[in-house]
Amino acid sequence: MNLDIIAPATTSKTRGFTIVELLIVIVVIAILAAIVIVAYNGMQNKAKNAQYQADVTTIVKKSEIYPYASGTNAYPLASSGPDAVTVTSQTASGSLLTAGINFVNEAKLPSNVVIFGVTTGTPTNAQAITAATANSSARGYFVKYCSTGKGMYIYYPDMTAAASATAPVTTVGTCP
């Protein structure tokens, strides 16, 4: 008998994934998803920071236009003044300042940018973040008037800094 003629028996063995292989794939996907989420949140915070800085630039430009456009030759000081001590009076004072800037057509702020409050101290980053996110349709900022009366400090949030840090600031006009 010739053994070469007989075909070897074929076995059909289907091979699937083992549970260990599936777990490894799931862990790798989870690690990649975590990296993407962290990177996405970092990009969102950077975008928010860029928006806040752009808003501050707008407030600076509009505040510098105001003295000339209004003919008053002065910054739009709120009638409740820089010495507002309560949150309510700070918010009212900030609303007056926003309205004062918006009174002159050439100096209107974008509708979603408001001066949240006028303060005598230096707000923390947490306070600036609260002001910026106090209203979902508007972004708020703190202002402190300079002792010279010819300028102001604008405080805005830094979404990547610690809450206890001092809020970043931009100066308008002449301050000591």
Structure explained in plain terms:
With 176 residues, this protein is of the alpha+beta class. It has one domain. It contains 3 helices and 4 strands, in the order H-H-E-H-E-E-E. A 4-stranded mixed β-sheet has the order 1-2-3-4, sandwiched between helices.
Key traits:
176 residues, alpha+beta, four-stranded mixed beta sheet
Q: Would you kindly provide a brief summary of this structure?
A:
By secondary structure, the chain is an alpha+beta fold. Helices cover 44% and strands 13% of the residues. The chain has one domain (20-173).
* Cα Rg: 30 Å
The count of domains is 1
Distance between the termini: 111 Å
Compute the number of helices: 3
For the biggest β-sheet, the strand order reads 1-2-3-4
Summarize the topology:
Blueprint: H1 19-70, H2 87-103, E1 113-118, H3 125-132, E2 139-145, E3 151-155, E4 169-173
Parallel strand pairs: 1-2
Antiparallel strand pairs: 2-3, 3-4
